[in-house]
Amino acid sequence: MLARLREDPALMLTGATAASELHLGLIGGDHVEAYVDESKIDDVIRLYHLRPSREANVKLRVVPSFMDSWPPAKVAPISAIALDLLDDPDPRSQQVGEEMLRNIGRRPPCLGRPCRSVGVPCRPSARASGRPPKPQMRPRD
């Protein structure tokens, strides 16, 4: 049931579920965390027979309807994933969330292989692209 829920087109994954999808060092197989449009929440609850629980394995964050087509992506924006990880009681999730926030805007080199860095798209390195590296500059004192 969780695998089907994770693939539901009405959801936009976040938190540990999204971090797992993006190969950021967390395993999200035993629970699902996602955003869902308020117009779809009742359908999702009914379809997957969800009910409140103190030990829930599904966390749905309801967002107001503001777009014609929801969700805009399968996975939430990096900043939202990071903030949701910081809200997680698991220390490892919080650590990954902090690392993601620190790395927002940084684009590490891929070195010709798939990039698995924390939450930012990679850029080709000078070595992998065949171009000479750009000199590092800093302001004068």
Shape: globular
Distance between the termini: 60 Å
Structural class: alpha+beta
Q: Note the quaternary state here.
A: single chain
Radius of gyration: 18 Å
Q: How helix-rich are the residues, as a percent range?
A: 25-40%
Strand order of the largest sheet: 1-2-3
Report the sheet with the most strands, covering strand number, pairing sense and barrel closure.
Answer: 3 strands, mixed
Identify low-pLDDT runs: 117-121, 124-129
Task: Output the helix-strand order.
Answer: HEHEHEHHH
Sheet-strand content, in percent, reads: 5-15%
Quick structural overview:
By secondary structure, the chain is α+β, with helices and mostly antiparallel strands. It has helices at 2-6, 15-21, 41-47, 78-86, 91-103, 126-129; strands at 11-13, 32-37, 58-63.
Describe the structure.
The chain is α+β, with helices and mostly antiparallel strands and 141 residues long. It has one domain. It is built from six helices and three strands, in the order αβαβαβααα. The chain has helices at residues 2-6, 15-21, 41-47, 78-86, 91-103, 126-129, and strands at residues 11-13, 32-37, 58-63. Strands 1-2-3 form a three-stranded mixed beta sheet. It is globular. The relative contact order is 0.16. The model is unreliable at 117-121 and 124-129 (pLDDT under 50).
Structural topology:
Elements: H1 2-6, E1 11-13, H2 15-21, E2 32-37, H3 41-47, E3 58-63, H4 78-86, H5 91-103, H6 126-129
Parallel strand pairs: 2-3
Antiparallel strand pairs: 1-2
